[in-house]
Write a structure and sequence with these properties.
elongated, 5 domains, about 25% helix, disordered C terminus, 15 strands, HSP40/DNAj peptide-binding domain, about 25% strand, 10 helices, Helix Hairpins, alpha+beta, 3-stranded mixed beta sheet
């Protein structure tokens, strides 16, 4: 029999995300097995939880609206698997009744590994970031860069244990090594057992009595090491590269953080870049502009010839196809645009002066309204 998730939550098919969330909160308060006295409370709680898991996810909701709950066609959904803290905040569910802390601890057990990680005191290391400047050519063609990085690594003496003595760590006498303190609380729902992080050992379950002398009991030390990073060809200013596991060391065996490299591309004396296209200016002599011909221009791949038609004016832009930057995501190559600028000679030889005098006389014969080059 097909499942009607909208009916399970008591909302319409056009319900907003906020309406779905509010409906789930209301029903979860009513049917949670640790709260409700109804015989079928557990089954109802699973049904509304399954419904919320699907309808609160836009992609899963779209699939459900289109295909129903048919498993073979319902891409992205694998049935009710329970909630984690990342999917729903149970402290928000009961916070307005004054039992936020109690229910947060209660519901955290059995639904995810977050509380267990807190009990052992393990934590992921911090991510760190550095800025890196690369030349225009390195950004276009790619490169491998090396730099010195200072970050926190696991202490080489105690190996992260915070003590290098056999008897340097003792079981916490307050929580008896569990990292949590149990307590009970009477509410109008009944007697509720809660677990809180031990205040003495901060959830680690042990107390360091003889700290490692090298790291002062931190389990980590400052290290400088050479790091190599590959700059992809076609990268531009503002791109961020991620080096997994090159951040700061975690706590008590926790995962090492990541390193993020923010790239800045240095300006080029001739080229200007706009996305994957390159722009530049090239000088053009009077004879080249008048008579036409080919001029040689620099590109990021070497040199190229540009055909200049006779009578070309200053400011005309020529396009060189696929002489720009190759996009490292799409694989497509941009173009290069060359703007020609008519160059006025500052010093003339005797022969050049004679030629220009002849040119001026010739223009005078053709009419006073003609341009300098007779155009």
């Amino acid at each position: 029999m097909a499942k009607d998730y909208y009916s399970n939550l008591g909302v319409s098919k056009n319900a907003s995300a906020e309406e779905i969330k509010e409906a789930y909160k209301r029903l979860a308060k009513q049917y949670h097995p640790d709260v409700s006295k109804e015989k079928d409370a557990e089954e109802k709680f699973k049904a509304i939880s399954e419904a919320y898991k699907v309808l609160s996810d836009p992609q899963k909701r779209q699939n459900y609206d289109q295909f129903g709950d048919a498993a073979e066609r319902f891409s992205g959904f694998s049935g009710f698997e329970g909630f984690t803290h990342s999917e729903f905040d149970f402290s928000d569910l009961f916070g307005d009744n004054g039992f936020g802390d109690a229910f947060r601890d209660l519901f955290g057990q059995g639904f995810s590994g977050a509380q267990q990680r807190q009990r052992t005191g393990s934590a992921r290391g911090q991510d760190i970031g550095v800025n890196m400047s690369v030349s225009f050519e390195e950004a276009v063609h790619g490169a491998t860069k090396e730099f010195m990085l200072e970050h926190e690594t696991v202490c080489t003496k105690c190996m992260g244990e915070r003590t290098d003595e056999k008897d340097g760590k003792q079981k916490c006498t307050t929580c008896h090594g569990s990292g949590v303190q149990q307590s009970t609380q009477r509410t109008f729902f009944g007697v509720i057992s809660t677990s809180t992080t031990c205040g003495k050992c901060r959830g680690e379950g042990t107390i360091i009595t003889k700290p490692c002398q090298k790291c002062s009991g931190r389990g980590k030390e400052k290290t400088r090491e050479k790091v190599s990073v590959k700059i992809p060809a076609g990268i531009d200013t503002g791109y961020r590269l991620r080096l997994t596991g090159h951040g700061n060391a975690g706590k008590n065996g926790g995962q090492t953080g990541d390193l993020y490299v923010l790239v800045f591309v240095e300006p080029h004396k001739e080229f200007k870049r706009d996305h994957d296209d390159i722009f530049m200016e090239a000088p053009l002599s009077f004879s080249q502009a008048t008579l036409g011909g080919k001029i040689e221009v620099q590109t990021i791949n070497g040199t190229a010839k540009v055909t200049v038609p006779p009578g070309t004016q200053t400011g005309v832009i020529f396009r060189l196809r696929e002489e720009g930057v190759k996009n490292f995501r799409t694989g497509k190559t941009g173009d290069q645009y060359v703007k020609v600028i008519l160059r006025t000679p500052e010093k003339l030889s005797k022969k050049q002066k004679e030629l220009f005098d002849e040119l001026g006389k010739e223009e005078g014969k053709k009419g006073k309204n003609k341009g300098f080059l007779g155009f």
